[in-house]
Amino acid sequence: GRTGGANTSFGFALAGVTRTVNETWFTGFAADTNLELAAKTQLRRGGPGTLNMYLVDADPWLGWAYFPSILNTADANLDGVVIDWRSLPGGPFAIYSEGDTATHEVGHWLSLYHTFDGGCGTKGDYVADTASEQSPAFNCQVGRDTCTGPSHPGVDPIINFMDYSQDSCMYQFTAGQSARMQAAWAAFRD
Fold it and tell me: Is pTM, for the whole model, over 0.90?
């Protein structure tokens, strides 16, 4: 909630940094889930409440994370957040270089869907206080409204961390998203 929106009450303390020089892992995560699993199995630290972040060349994506339900599967070591290093603050991904890719992916790590998941359907992102959105917003399309009519009030939530807007446009989670993250923490990570 520091930049606007609901206070999620989540905070993280850096427990450590490890650097692993492995070109195959660095460039291969995005193309090969088996390679990702092998690397994370070797690198992962802590339990379900420990957020592991992996900085790689994630091309063609900015990053990704698995929902916490993965913790109950044979692929539990895939848990964590993968970020393209170029999306870090000051990185070369101009409109995506304020660090909000990490915020977005941590949202997934805490069980949030994209604001546009479900489109204009009745369930949308499974959070009642985010406006429905048919498709992801890119750049900063102020006033965009892809789901109209009385059953879809409000313009697209382009300011929400769970959309695809550029970093300078995204600055909030909603109270409903905060509640969903708290419930996911209690169910899977506590």
Answer: yes
Under DSSP, is residue 64 helix (H, G, I), strand (E, B) or coil? strand
The answer to whether the bond into 60 is cis (omega within 30° of 0) is: yes
In the structure encoding, which two tokens stand for residue 11, read together? 């905070």
- Per-chain mean pLDDT for the chain: 94
What's the CA gap between 164 and 145, in Å, rounded?
15
Q: Is 70 exposed, middle or buried (0-12, 13-18, 19+ CB in 10 A)?
A: middle
Helices (H), 122-161: none
Span 14-35, pLDDT tens digits: 999 999 999 999 999 888 999 9
Instruction: Tell me what pLDDT residue 124 has.
Output: 86
Q: Is 105 a catalytic residue?
A: yes
Pick the catalytic residue from 36, 98, 105, 133.
105
Tokens of 108: 């997934």
